[in-house]
Amino acid sequence: LATAVYYVTSAYDGPLLLAVVVALFLVAAAGRLHAAVVIAALCLLGTALGTIRGNGDVNQVALFMLTGWFVAMITLGGLRHSHLARARETEERAAAQERLRIARELHDVVGHHLSLINVQSTAALRRLTKDPAAGADQATEALGAVKDASREALRELRATLGVLREAGEAAPTAPAPGLGRLGELTDAAGAAGLAVTVHRTGDTGPLPVEADLAAYRIVQESLTNVARHARATRADIHLDGVGCRLTVTVTDDGRGPAADPARTGPPGSGITGMRERARALGGDLTAGPAPGGGFSVRATLPLARTTATEEPRR
């Protein structure tokens, strides 16, 4: 408006039209494309009316060039807005994925060990209440398992929270959990009264770090669900490596969803988290009643094998 008033009332020319051009770019870059088009149209209309009424400073050629400038500025501003919007969307999506990854890690680590602590402490309390004299030794053993599980939970929790460290802080040096530590899971489950057997067929190692961690967490969460919900006495872990694919299957002999109301509802965050882990690697996971009774979790993970001369990714 100030530029229009100046050109109408002043007899002196000046580069004030550059301010209109810059304003059109800024308005379009802010995402106000309709407003930029309206402003440009009003400017062109006013200039055209001045030319028609005999203003010799702006002829038809100059009016055409001015139109091109306005269109170019609005286009560049719109492209700038689109670029910034895509950058913000990419950043927000990356932040959401990182939050999901951290939440998944915390759920797997804390949920697994707290479930074992709950089972062992409940067993110890029941034994002491039922027969304080005879149950003392069994309660002591259960409390020892609680101590080990809590120590392991704290260790893994510190490693997981390392991703939230302050800038400049040293990165955690502990290796990521993998199937090489499967014995720790089976020992912990055994201390909770669950007999776990591991069956390996085909080529099950070495695995890429991402697949190794995903397989470990899937087994960990599956055993957690067995201890919390299945009322099972036995669980079987099958690891089958064929080509560039690893199949992880965990079955139990407990009460399946059809018989146990606690497992009839929609999948909880544990099964959802396991499925997200598998899909993040391009695989898939299914969970449901096993044909012979109990519950079964089956995950298929694609692999990119590491060779003897390659360093595994960290």
Could you walk me through the main structural features you see in this protein, from its secondary elements to its overall organization?
With 314 residues, the chain is of the alpha+beta class. It has two domains: 2-89; 176-314, Heat Shock Protein 90 (2-Layer Sandwich), CATH 3.30.565.10. Helices cover 58% and strands 12% of the residues. A five-stranded mixed beta sheet has the order 1-2-3-5-4, covered by helices on one side. α4 runs antiparallel to α5. It is elongated, with a radius of gyration of 33 Å.
Secondary structure layout plus pairing:
Elements: H1 2-9, H2 17-29, H3 33-52, H4 60-130, H5 136-161, H6 182-191, E1 195-202, H7 209-230, E2 234-242, E3 245-252, H8 269-280, E4 284-289, E5 295-302
| Second CATH tier, the architecture of the largest domain | 2-Layer Sandwich
Main CATH class of the largest domain: Alpha Beta
What global shape is seen? elongated
Taken together, the total number of domains comes to 2
Radius of gyration: 33 Å
User: What is the H/E string?
Assistant: HHHHHHEHEEHEE
Let me know the CATH homologous superfamily of the largest domain.
Answer: Histidine kinase-like ATPase, C-terminal domain
Strand element count: 5
**Helix percent band:** 55-70%
Alpha-carbon distance between the two ends: 60 Å
Main β sheet profile: 5 strands, mixed
